[in-house]
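One chain shown below:
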Amino acid sequence: MRLLHALAAFALMLGTPLAAADPEPAQAKANSVEELHKQAMADAAKAAWAVAPVEERTVSKRGSVTVDGRSLKYTATAGTLTIRDAAGKPTASIFYTADTLDGVPGARRPVTFFYNGGPGSASLWLRMGSFGPTRIQTENASYIRPAPFNYGPNPDTLLGSTDMVFIDAPGTGYSRMLGDAKPADFYGVDKDADAFARAIIRYVTKFDRWSSPKFLFGESYGTTRSGALAYQLQDRGMALNGVVLLSSIMNYGRRQPGLDRDFINYIPSYAATAWYHHKMANPPTTLEEAVAQGRAFAQGAYATALEKGQTISPEERASIAQQMSQLTGLSPRFIENADLRVGLSQFRKELLRDQRQTVGRFDSRYMGVDADASGDSPEFDASDVAISGGFIGVHHDYLASLGYQTDMQYRLSASEEEGYKWDWKHEAPGVRFALNNPNTAIDLASAMRTNPYLKVLSLNGYYDMATPFFGTEYDLNHMMLEPAQQQNLEFRYYPSGHMVYLNPEALHRMRLDVQDFINRAVSQAK
């Protein structure tokens, strides 16, 4: 109808006496008419685009869930937050869902903000798989069958301890830029953290949660965001009670070519994977023992050998290759041919090559089958494709059940948008130059030093090959905290992959760990 109205107005304009008396030459007049016609068509088409609302909107629905024998009544909300620049101009509409406990004054009740990573990933994974009162039903290290999917009440929701807000990053989900804002205004380490800081401050202000204990929960690149975000929020007057880091990558600098740290970081994860797939030469009884052996070798003989670079002797080189083979299941020859530095893609392809199978990146217990068994890297991530269809399907059903309606497409990634390019530069506190490879553990350390009550909990999966747990330990143990702040940093480990919550038993343990962490952080701040 908008198109018809625009064309009708255009026709009326052409029929006016002024247009008939136009003295311009015939060709110029024709060109002018053609341009007006094109503009009218463009304006009409643009009016029909599905765009994010500038005015904030919410839809809500009541629900109940039973946790530890206790029935919890709650309100599930889907909505948008409009964030603005310093002048007050709207710059983005941020989509979120929130689960808040009924019958409890929200002013002093804990609230936790959740988000996934990417960078540029929507947060449907945490929303539908982790601690919300409704989640997809999953089995440990298994492929989620096609529709119909199973999802329903989550007995391991955190609703008993905290309200939860799941946020989609700008350009993902239903979050969109507004007005003349550009992708470059949001797609970068510091710009992304700024947008999240504005969204969280807006939510806290809108719903009167300034007196609530506040927590961040980020997964994967979301932990990179959390480091910068914790500092930015504190710098703007919002002191946090806690930060939960799931499957972390805080320091991208360690991945630079010529540095050996990432090869060292992967050894315990390689050992855990080899143990699981029965490729370890002399496997110990437990996974934890296999990991301990990997840690000892990685930070001992292996790190010493890599430090020598090309000056290592042939005898030491052969000895290290033999020891590494015993732990990882790879042949000594393969390891020597890789100069003792086996990259992740090489390992994933080589470990089960004799079975013509690959292992997953997000979870190395998953196995895939490539068309070319002789290649040098896997053709896909089996642990990714095994779950995507189920999560995406139930997420659309979930939002429909809340009554949230929009003509926009739910974007899984900001990379779907034209002009997407991530700016990796980072201005870290106390560093006099911009880091081209961000290390937001610096930001987190600064926040912990200035806020003595800020607690940090690191959650890790032994089979996570995307963000290896030994790398997380390295990053967080190099924040150079004083003993008082070191006491505020804790680690937990699970027999799972990157998305710990896919394993129901690990999810239960993790829920208890996070619940305990939140309760202690709140009580210690009183």
